[in-house]
Amino acid sequence: MRSAHRRPGVTEVQRLIMEGGRRLHGQVRISGSKNAVLPILAATLLTDEECVIRNVPRLRDVAVMTSILRRLGAEVHAEAEEGEQVLRVCARRLRTHEVPETLVRRMRSSIFLMGPLLGREGRVRLSYPGGCAIGPRPINLHLKALSDLGAVIEERNGYLEARAPVLAGATVHLDQSSVGATENAMMAAVLARGMTAIYNAAREPEIADLQGFLNAMGARVSGAGTDVIRVEGVGRLRGADYRVIPDRIEAGTYLVAAAITGGHLVLLDAEPSHLESPIAKLREAGAVVTARGREIHVQGPDRPRAVDIKTVPYPGFPTDLQSPFMALLSLAEGTSIITESIFENRFKVAGELRRMGAQIAIDGRVAVIRGVHRLSGAVVEAMDDLRGGAALVLAGLAAEGRTVVEGVRHIERGYQDLDRKLLEVGARIRRTLNGAVLTRRTAILPAPPPPIGS
Ligand code: EPU
Q1: pTM over 0.85
Q2: How far is the C-alpha of 447 from the C-alpha of 129, rounded, in Å?
Q3: Both 230 and 265 in a single domain?
Q4: What is the distance in A from the centroid of ligand 1 to the CA of 182?
């Protein structure tokens, strides 16, 4: 049976149920960036003073990260200020340098706790992060960068054990541009002795945000946004009060929501300069997109035109918007080709889109999408890839009839209040938990972090 009760012990069955075919209209407030806040939260371990992090999205991944911080000994308090989540983190004393398997399994990106724990404690023990639905996701670049800075790393019984009584500034060459490895190297280097230069660094906006936070703590980091990042090590870091950038992938997903429904949305609190490549593709597909300060206005076309897309590191087209665009192009006039050059297995959603009537052929890293006139509602499953899950919701908004998306917990990893935000702009959508409707028009309160080890 295709249903969400597939993990033993998990009885919650959450579904998103949509009646498609409504043009969306209205305003959507964009939340803080998941991929910026996760390394920033990890970086709070670098000081024994309190850090205040603002504009923190209420997401499952953030809850897992706060569980990890608490487990390590940090105090974490969540507050709501003007509807926005603020986290106060104070890692005065750390209790342990070990991140247990249960938590690493729930968030693969916990690998970037290695850099800050090495910087602060000189040692770290972390369960070996496995692969996930979007590919094997190796960690060789992380380990090489940390070794270059003086860490001695061993793998024992499924755990990575790293020691570095003293980290020393070094030249780090990344063979491939990696967001996480760049962040890990930056966080290890800020307290290292001397100068570090990271070559072929990733240039994503989340890297610049991490640089901003580290510098607010008293670090000396420069070059983020270019492919060479320089770090001058300092003796200690202090607490900081910092606001996280808007989530460009969430924003891009709502741009597609307008485009796929032929609707008109205004995104508030967005950062248009982080979205140039997807906006260019949306215009090519026939949408009218204009930016004014922190607002993005998008008017969807009656029917999108086919476009070709290749995912590449920033500032190119982001892999995280590949699946949402696949949903859009399923309805386009003409044939589109998507080439996925970052994560090899990121076409899994194509099978579910086909169940809704999409015509998509996959050959390795290339997807050929022959646009159809209509998609039809179906029961589909968001598998272990939140962007694929978001693509199914987008398809459901445009499809004829009822779409039921199962596996909602994967989508909750990366989209705050997705159902509520869509409901407010006219979508017919509801989220159910074991059959009970959860969707409300008002914002939900911050969810308490899940219990450790659950
Ligand atoms: N890679 C290696 N070795 C490594 C690290 C990466 O070969 O040690 C390869 C990867 O397999 C991939 C490429 O390098 O082919 C780029 O991966 P990167 O390290 O940049 O990805 P990441 O840091 O693991 C972050 C985001 C992803 C996003 C990618 C690419 C976070 C927490 N995650 O992952 O976000 O897709 O960058 O932009 O920042 C998502 O939000 O849905 C998501 C998966």
Answers
A1: yes
A2: 25
A3: no
A4: 10
